[in-house]
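Case study B.
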Amino acid sequence: MVEETVQKETLYRGKVIDLELHDVTLPDGNDAKREIVRHPGAVGIITIDNDGRIILVKQYRKALGKVIYEIPAGKKEPGEDSLTTAKRELEEETGYQAEQWKEVTSFYTSPGFADEIIELYEARDIQESHQLSLDEDEFIEVIAVTLEEAKALLHQQLIHDAKTAYALLYLDIQAQQS
Amino acid sequence: MVEETVQKETLYRGKVIDLELHDVTLPDGNDAKREIVRHPGAVGIITIDNDGRIILVKQYRKALGKVIYEIPAGKKEPGEDSLTTAKRELEEETGYQAEQWKEVTSFYTSPGFADEIIELYEARDIQESHQLSLDEDEFIEVIAVTLEEAKALLHQQLIHDAKTAYALLYLDIQAQQS
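Model:
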């Protein structure tokens, strides 16, 4: 089923993504073009505070043209291992450090056109480090909500992205099993 | 928190995606650039056959460089409503029609750089229509697996995308509640 690249062109090199156009040979020998967005990969952190609430960040997303609430997340730096990214991003975006870390899963967000992979972690036993340090173009508010409050945000489409929707189902299953 | 576009440039218009570069004014008055991938939106169909198995499609994904198993899915045509897309894509990719349709949820896949939204449906009471009609550059195999078999595929990272990972948690919750 493999599609072999005959030729590729990098159409754009950006800060967050690159765009490549590949001429490929299909399994039947015919030709096709594939548009591929390259992304360094990201982590998302399902963060539970010491009262059992979920930590969310409220952020304007230009691509969507709206403000949404998401689990803390961020892009990997070149060569950085995922847990290091997770610890760094949690602290930078929320000012929290966590003692307990657990790998949850990983998934590609848009396999039809992008190689972005998100690795999800669960972080518990948190404390404030006061090391909040947002990127210069990041404007974020941090909130803590119960699972029921988070579900209400989902219903209002104020939670509206894949990693956070996944996180809520994951926590729902945990709640049912406990 | 809104970021106002001062100027935008469409860097690429493609078959699946367009790429825009926006110069924006940040909430603090500073400037920034935002790379935005435009996508028409897609549907994913959590399809359960009459033996309770999950219908998956096996497909090579050039962006990932590997074959993965996903729930049936596809892009919306201009002006098409989501349920119509869902029925069309299910039939084109798998040859099945379904009698029972239910909206599950929707989510943005990559809010940091793309406006792609996936609307998820659950389809049951299926029958073969023999109307399989793949796009000329699509090479797909259709399989039916139990939830346990699907979880094994997830463990092997042969299921490895956001919508299908979400679908498995969703079906897991249904199974626990029944």
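The first strand of chain A starts at residue 4 and ends at 13. The remaining cases will be described in the next quarterly update.
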